[in-house]
Description:
Strand content: under 5%
Helix content: over 70%
Largest sheet: none
Order of helices and strands: HH
Structural class: mainly alpha
Shape: elongated
Number of strands: 0
Radius of gyration: 19 Å
Amino acid sequence: MKRLKRGQGYTEYGLILMLIGLVVIGALTLMGQSVHELWHNITTSMPR
Length: 48
């Protein structure tokens, strides 16, 4: 019985991590161009 509860906990943690991953991917997709422009501005302002 204890083993089933542990497996259920791992499944719940996996689902939470998957949800967080989807949110991060969605946020990067929506803000991708602005993040790209910000990164470009940072790299071009750095001295070489």
